[in-house]
Inverse folding.
């Protein structure tokens, strides 16, 4: 039996197919207003392998000059991020354990070749409220460890409709995506994986 680090919860199949489809439709409306773009790593300017956008009052962005941060507008269009769809807020309320409302939803699109290295979610002023992550589309191999990069990690598959919550002792757990399993879901017309990460940014 897989033992997850303290504070890390995996909720398999939290969203049934109809709710997944409704969420994808909501994401399509977001992307129509705030198109996916390729972010850059700080200092090096190296393009990340995912494409991303955001919705909510704030969005997480990164580029060579200013690095990791939150800002209220799309870095390419300069327009405010679209409002967060109600379906996302409903999911947050159901699993986050927080009375606060999420301020940011980062939307990452993973193609078959995309990855995400081990990292902590620590660009927020609020490092107590849980982070909620929703998987849609193709499966991935997710890895999660402790609060230090060298801590032991465990890996498991995330399927479409799964939710992961990083809270309590797991709020600052290192985590990442080691690979995508292509053609494991029919949810997204052209394949790939969407990951939606809901965060509270300010105290």
């Amino acid at each position: 039996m897989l033992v997850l680090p303290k504070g890390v919860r995996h909720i398999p199949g939290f969203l049934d197919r109809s709710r997944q489809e409704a969420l994808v439709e909501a994401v399509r409306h977001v992307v129509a207003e705030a198109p996916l773009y390729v972010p850059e790593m700080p200092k090096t300017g190296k393009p990340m392998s995912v494409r991303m956008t955001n919705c909510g009052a704030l969005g997480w962005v990164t580029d060579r000059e200013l690095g990791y941060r939150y800002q209220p507008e799309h870095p390419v269009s300069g327009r405010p991020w679209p409002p967060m769809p109600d379906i996302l807020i409903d999911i947050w309320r159901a699993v986050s354990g927080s009375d606060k409302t999420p301020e940011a939803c980062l939307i990452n699109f993973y193609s078959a070749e995309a990855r995400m290295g081990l990292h902590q979610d620590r660009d927020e002023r609020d490092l107590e409220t849980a982070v909620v992550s929703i998987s849609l589309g193709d499966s991935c191999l997710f890895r999660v460890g402790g609060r230090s990069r060298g801590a032991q990690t465990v890996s498991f598959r995330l399927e479409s409709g799964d939710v992961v919550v990083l809270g309590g002792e797991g709020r600052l757990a290192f985590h990442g995506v080691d690979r995508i399993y292509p053609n494991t879901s029919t949810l997204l017309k052209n394949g790939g994986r969407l990951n939606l990460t809901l965060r509270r940014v300010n105290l």
User: Anything to note?
Assistant: The mean pLDDT is 97.
